[in-house]
């Protein structure tokens, strides 16, 4: 299967400084990929090169095996940037009709309304009268107007309330189930953890991690097993158990730090200890994000 996105040795320099440094990855059909990283990490520059809005200093960025600037690509992608800029003096339904006319097989107005949650009142509003949240919905509808196979979202839920944010991501999952491919950036790491099937983490212009949220957390973070114990046991005994990295006592609970919770939990049950209120904490994406970027800075 040919990749939807193909990035090979992509590099971008500004005044001699590398914003993107020899980046390579591919994206397959139906993936939901979060591109994450601290400010200045190179993620936005990479996305702009994928869209053909910036020319690489070196390397290749192709979509559907074509150059990003080609008409064939433009007819198959949808884009929602962080700053939604709409043409004034047009009603929303007029603007949508204009965008639909750009594509050979656009989605119907009824479908766009259903997918984005717009109301009839919003459709009849002039764009300059829209609130911030309404503009985000219109921006989403414009990105979907051509029934694209590949969607780019840059900080898509900024300014949305919790209800609108939930609806947005439900729609994104539905689109991915239809075989569409989604790339998005966000500073809401919990969104990436909940929604993405894959995370590409940037720092200082390089890709420093690439995998599913579960893989990234499993490979990088210590997990823990915590419980209450209705008998006395020496902490040193627990510490000497295989795969236990540390033992912490806090507010009447024991917490065992480990990279292999299944093995430790199995051993605890074999000891026939009277355990109560057992909890396994698998770590947060925020912790992995911080750990990776700090390690890169140190190295």
Give a verbal description of the structure.
With 299 residues, the protein is an alpha/beta fold. It folds into two domains: 213 residues, 3-Layer(aba) Sandwich (Rossmann fold), CATH 3.40.50.300; 60 residues, 2-Layer Sandwich (Alpha-Beta Plaits). It is built from twelve helices and 13 strands. The strands form three sheets. Strands 5-6-7-3-8-9 form a six-stranded mixed β-sheet, sandwiched between helices. A four-stranded antiparallel β-sheet has the order 11-12-10-13. The chain has a three-stranded antiparallel β-sheet with strand order 2-1-4, with helices on one face. Strand 11 and strand 12 form a beta hairpin. Helix 4 packs across helix 6.
Provide a short characterization of the protein structure:
With 299 residues, this protein is α/β, with parallel strands linked by helices.
Overview features:
299 residues, Rossmann fold, 2 domains, 13 strands, elongated
How are the SSEs ordered, and which strands pair?
Layout: E1 5-14, E2 17-27, E3 32-36, H1 43-50, E4 58-63, H2 71-74, E5 77-80, H3 92-100, H4 109-116, H5 120-123, H6 132-144, E6 150-154, H7 162-177, E7 181-185, H8 189-195, E8 198-203, E9 206-211, H9 213-220, E10 223-229, H10 235-239, E11 244-250, E12 253-258, H11 261-270, E13 275-281, H12 285-298
Parallel strand pairs: 3-7, 3-8, 5-6, 6-7
Antiparallel strand pairs: 1-2, 1-4, 8-9, 10-12, 10-13, 11-12
């Amino acid at each position: 299967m040919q990749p939807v996105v193909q990035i090979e040795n992509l590099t971008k320099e500004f005044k001699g400084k590398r914003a993107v440094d020899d980046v390579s990855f591919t994206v397959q059909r139906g993936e939901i990929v979060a591109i994450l990283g601290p400010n200045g990490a190179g993620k936005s520059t990479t996305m702009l090169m994928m869209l053909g809005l910036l020319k690489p200093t070196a390397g290749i960025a192709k979509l559907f095996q074509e150059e990003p600037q080609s008409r064939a690509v433009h007819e198959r992608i949808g884009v929602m940037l962080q700053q939604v800029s709409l043409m004034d003096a047009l009603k929303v339904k007029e603007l949508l009709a204009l965008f639909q006319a750009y594509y050979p097989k656009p989605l119907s107005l009824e479908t766009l309304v259903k997918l984005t949650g717009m109301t009839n009142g919003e459709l009849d509003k002039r764009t300059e009268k829209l609130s911030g949240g309404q503009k985000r919905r219109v921006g989403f509808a414009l990105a979907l107007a051509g029934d694209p196979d590949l969607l780019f979202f840059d900080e898509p839920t900024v300014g949305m309330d919790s209800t609108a944010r939930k609806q947005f991501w439900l729609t994104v999952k539905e689109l991915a189930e239809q075989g569409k491919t989604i790339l998005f950036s966000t500073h809401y790491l919990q969104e990436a953890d909940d929604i993405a099937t894959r995370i590409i983490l940037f720092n200082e212009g390089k890709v420093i991690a690439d995998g599913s949220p579960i893989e990234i957390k499993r490979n990088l973070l210590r997990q823990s097993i915590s419980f209450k114990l209705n008998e006395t046991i020496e902490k040193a005994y627990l510490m000497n158990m295989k795969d236990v990295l540390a033992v912490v006592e806090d507010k009447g609970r024991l917490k065992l730090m480990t990279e292999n919770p299944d093995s430790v939990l199995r051993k605890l049950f074999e000891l026939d200890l009277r355990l109560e209120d057992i909890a396994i904490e698998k770590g947060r994406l925020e912790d992995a994000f911080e750990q990776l970027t700090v390690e890169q800075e140190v190295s």
